[in-house]
Amino acid sequence: MTWNSTMSSGYSSLEEDSEEYFFTARTSFFKKPSGKVTAESKDVEKDRRLRTEFSREEIRQKIELYNSMTKDHLKMTLGHTGVYTGFIKVQMDLRRPVTVRGGQRVAGGAVGQEAFYLPRGVTNTLHVSSNNTVKQVIVALLNKFTVADNPAKYALYKRYRREEQVYVCKLADGEQPLFLRLVAGPNDDTLSFVLREQQTGEVMWDAFSIPELRNFLRILDKEEEEQREAVIRRYDNYRQRLQEALREVRGPS
Fold this sequence. Notes:
By secondary structure, this protein is α+β, with helices and mostly antiparallel strands. It contains five helices and nine strands, in the order βααβββββαββαβα. The N and C termini lie far apart (52 Å).
């Protein structure tokens, strides 16, 4: 089953979102990363220093420069409190099915859930503030698609170009995507955001809900049946070729 791509048009706003999150499973089902210092952690620390070093006047100047360079009218606005708002685009790159809240109600009045494959490569536009974090952006994207999965199963990555090479780096939950967008400028070739499944650690299956596990089983059963039919077809073809070869060797009876 696939998600209707027409559902991904438009943009969402995070300015009035609640800061409370309700998860369907434990958030710590991936192993903690090692304490090694990586290039990713260095980039995060560099961005954090930049945020503290920029004055309000420097932010204002950067916003003016950003707005003068943007070509899609998705401009940033600086508020009187120093908080600025703007837009970020996030590409969906999910390889596994997601659990989506359906419109039909099941026994007991609960809303039913189904497993869907979201179309890969679809880009969503979110209206965010400079205070919004990566974690909030992930929650907003999942809410936009009515995804019932635990937000901790997903991660936001930044894809950027450096010396003609393209790199992909996972962002920490506390990072602020709009600040990264402001520093990089409006060009998506310089910096873009991608939503993916978590890639580190081992999955703890007890972190998934019963409906999610049942959906996985249904998908596995379907894939198993497809593989079984493919094997049967392949050996049927082998058998047919062998029988034809035997008839040619024996000649007409």
